[in-house]
């Protein structure tokens, strides 16, 4: 399947200017260059014209024009993605939501907030704090909410609170032809017709533009605790992860770190952790008194699974020190490898397959001589492998290993991506992961965007 | 839009017999009559032929035949739905999953189970008990898992564990043309392409036949407690519901009962509850000791909201007595109204709108002189109104009131159905609730089922 597109002519730029105003249209190299790639390692590509939209009506008019003229349209939020998801691969119009970033309503009694897509995740939560609420799916970066919706972002707290898609009730969207509609409602429970909101979430801007979203919020926990445990083997560590999940203690984070990653962050943050497979945990409670009993149970569970080190705390500064180390793993790895590139890959498997996957990663690292760090959201079966390399040969070896790891994850009943999305970097695995369903995705794509103008080149290898 | 269908000829019956065997095909009136309606009040309609399938290959061959011959196909599970969802409105083939009801695998370490669609919800959980796990979305009845998936069923514990759609990872489905595919994977986190599984869930058998599903399970809680509180007004009761949700105490059930329902079940089960707006709660914990502190907090919250009665217990028989009363509300109402019909309607709104909706229901009941009971899953903003009537005049009044209540729920930002689905009973509200998105649902329907052979007459008014 191949689609043809037209370039952005001066006449088109003029029409766009009429829609959004001259101050919201740019063809300057600096503006386009600044939005030509994300935080991943994919080659940059500039759009032909950048358009900052301010409201749904503008989005609708831009889309109708682009659809009529067969011009690619790619959304831009904060550019914090990793698989090239927002790179305007075929040029065209870059639709930036940076200036469409307001909170429209805090529905405090409903534990909901309605926002425009350009607002940052951290900015949103900073503003929600005074309401005692927060939007739970934490992607680490200050991603835009629109980007989180587009990629179904997730993170450390997904084990308790779910991914982005589990926390969206209602969206306003604009289709490729400019038609505007609401998907879902503000009711927590919905069983009314097709779940189109969840079709659009995770579609990486290839099915519709999201112009507004009502998100589920969680009450900010009153009390936190953290624990860290070390094991002699990955399988013991994952046995503990499974046992903690099965305990009913409802961990809010359940992270795995391989020995080399543990050693690195331990040294950098003065944590004195053994260089062993490590599990990092967090627990939330409405009662201070409950945390100690929870931590006692966790200690017991870890001991039964053969932990060789255990440390738990309800002290805030000790807890934050531990999580600071985990949250800055990427930066610590970058700092420890000056002059080399770091590529963050993401796969996920059923938890029972986690030790097999980690063993596979270890074996590949040894055999291929690739420098790689493994850590991730073990409670969800999600692992990140950070490849460190310099030069073509190392890059090729890292890429070959990544390819092998992704195929292994799929073979184990898992997925090519748990939270980063397909973007450009994972398109080659779609057939292998989805088989016949990939064809159905194409059918759906064509039904919603007949001219394939929305974010072409992503998800599908054209 | 109108589609034409062909009748089931003797030749078609012969072809079906070749696919599934003579013992799995029936045109007997008794077999067809027994599956001509669900537990709701919609008029029965017989299929032309009943086919019991045993595996995916048979489903695929039946679908290919039906699609080629333009014969309607409607799935049958347990018939416990309420909106006529599985009634074969246009006759055709009734595809029964009753004999395709095995557990295919318990993935204990992954907290997952893979099942065929015909297994009953209660039967599944009975078998999972020895693994210390359960499938949480509780629809009350022993619904088939296939039916729960088709209607996105939910229930009392959704406030903590989510609805059916929140607990599905992977499905095998057969499209209208007989093509077979897998949607999703066994990974808890998935961000790989379009979320087609969630498009099919809740589509009421109009997009695909589900032949297999991998479900998320939860550990059976170690300790339970229950509490009941009475208030002088609905708004105070809902204030307590919101406060309990916001407390971080993570209720596993948060139910509302209006005074007349409370009085009825209280009398029937010897509970001695005041005839007041009532809130029923359940809490789960891994620690027995935590329950008392939780209940103390709940008592305090309810007192602050003006509770005039409060009772809490960790005693199992007291707890079960309370929940027995709630679980049998429908039967109690039926018994209290001999010779009259009882119709169970279902709407949901943002919680903040709950008191407005209840007031609206109260006012309508008075003004219209309709006999109605209101209760439901307040923690999710979900309310059931049970209309009791005899004769045409009362029936018309009840139906008129139901119509007004549904429009009110939609006006309040809610939905025509939180958990029963659209079926036949709610099609008239689809345009009002979804506006332009209803047209998009039609586009998706046509893309997946071009001849509209799957469960025609449901969701859409043709």
Describe this structure in words.
Helices cover 37% and strands 21% of the residues of chain A. The first copy, chain A, has 462 residues and is of the alpha+beta class. A 7-stranded antiparallel sheet of chain A has the order 15-12-14-13-17-18-16, sandwiched between helices. In chain A, a hairpin with a 5-residue loop joins strand 8 (168-174) and strand 9 (180-184). At the A-B interface, strand 9, helix 7, helix 8, helix 10 and helix 15 of A face strand 9, helix 7, helix 8, helix 10 and helix 15 of B.
Descriptive labels:
five-stranded antiparallel sheet, Alpha-Beta Plaits, 18 strands, alpha+beta, homodimer, 462 residues, Uridine Diphospho-n-acetylenolpyruvylglucosamine Reductase, domain 3
Unreliable parts of chain A? none
Query: How much of the residues of chain A is beta strand, in percent?
Result: 15-25%
Major sheet summary line of chain A? 7 strands, antiparallel
CATH topology descriptor of the domain at 103-219 in chain A: Uridine Diphospho-n-acetylenolpyruvylglucosamine Reductase, domain 3
Output the structural class of chain A.
alpha+beta
Largest interface: A-B, 97 and 97 residues
- Oligomer category: homodimer
In CATH's first tier, which class of the domain at 103-219 in chain A applies? Alpha Beta
- Average pLDDT of chain A, rounded to a whole number, is 96
Q: Tally of extended strands of chain A? A: 18
The helical percent of chain A reads 25-40%
Any idea what the shape of chain A is?
A: globular
**Whole-number radius of gyration of chain A?**
23 Å
Major beta sheet, strand line-up of chain A: 15-12-14-13-17-18-16
N- to C-terminal distance of chain A: 6 Å
